[in-house]
Amino acid sequence: MSDILAMTAVAARQALDNKSISAVELTEAYIKAGQDTSENNAYVLTTPDKAMDMAKASDARLARGDAGLLEGIPIGVKDMFCTKGVETTASSRILKGFVPTYESTVTQNLWQDGAVMLGKINCDEFAMGSANETSAFGAVINPWTASDGPLKGKALTPGGSSGGSAAVMAARSALLAPGTDTGGSIRQPAAFCGLVGLKPTYGRCSRLGIVAFASSLDQAGPITRDVADCALMMTSMASYDKGDSTSIDAPMPDLMAALSKARNEGVKNMRIGIPDEYTIDGMPEQIVTLWEQGRQWLEDAGAICVPVSLPHTKYALPAYYIIAPAEASSNLARYDGVRYGQRVEGATLDEMYAKTRGAGFGDEVKRRILIGTYVLSAGYYDAYYIKAQKIRRLIQNDFHQVFSDVDALLTPSTPSAAFALGDEDKDPVSMFLNDVFTVPANLAGIPAISVPAGLSSDGLPLGLQLIAPALREDTLIEGAAMLEKAAGFDHVASGAAS
Fold it and tell me: Which of 26, 295, 342, 416 gives a 20 to 30 Å CA spacing to 302?
């Protein structure tokens, strides 16, 4: 089974096409891998019977020569995506028992391309968190363990909010996993788990059927083992959707062609900006060293790296933690126990509302709802929310100006490697700082990718991030492929299934 689990999605598709393995065999291997790594708490619900039915259907299409892009590939689905007939809770008590009667557009695209559903994956409650500790189902454990230092022997976070998606990928209990990224929730977990994570341009993937956190920031994207799998999955996930008013009606660049170009021609003459403002106080030396190494790799491959300035970057986190909670406060007002999900009875309607929301929401969700309600309230709306939106515009303008001179930006993905579960749970501000390198791309609505590039001093994955102009996912794939080749990251988590 180890040979099967070691295959990338691209390799598995080739094996399925040449009949060296069947979709049923592949799916059975991943079902068992999920059972063998269940101590990670990454799956909140498994669907083995559904998976086997879908695998059999894939084998039939493969036999007819009618295979889709992801035919027979077993995937886990973050619990933020509505899945028809399968419980969807956003890892919250308040949505317990909610079984959607419709499919999210992203997952529908994946099923139409032949993907096989293994189950629903744990995440931070309503995608609010950076450590996957706010879930009503309990924390997810990173399959990676420290080889040395103070973290040795401790359970580590896989990051968040898509920590469960990253954990199943690192544990080899899914071959692909879609995530959602509001402020870094794909890229940070990918970096913590030695994976590739792509947040596409806002509007590239439909938000229809994704449980909303912050509507102007949320975007679905892939978490994969390598850049080739990322290009493959992104091609399937993206589509224009009339059902989503924020969906972009623009053709997706040929990402597989971009990958081939990078492998054959490198990144000669690509201009890469190194933002001065991403050097922050107290940043670990190993992060600084890796960043410099990434710059050197790109230059060795023919890229031209130049210093650039994004002067309003320092305001990105404060602006984000005003805008995101404000939108969350509005979006989560719908969860009141009236039509679906958990209900706690009360003597009056208002009491029922209060008891339901009090029992159904976790502490972090409550914190963000209260922050959001405060900044939207009379007397504070102009002082906080409007000002944050003005700062967002300045950040967007910074990127626009910089991209008139460079093709992409290179930054660290995270300010540290994975930390121990519980280390930052009691300090919300410390937790928020994990998003310092990822949030600006969300505020600007531009694509960004994290690529595994090395190990920390205690043997944990570290990632590098590339940021590109809107709709230039092909540029990201080209640069990421080059970084991937140079880094040669082939490490496997100690907790991976075999």
Answer: 416
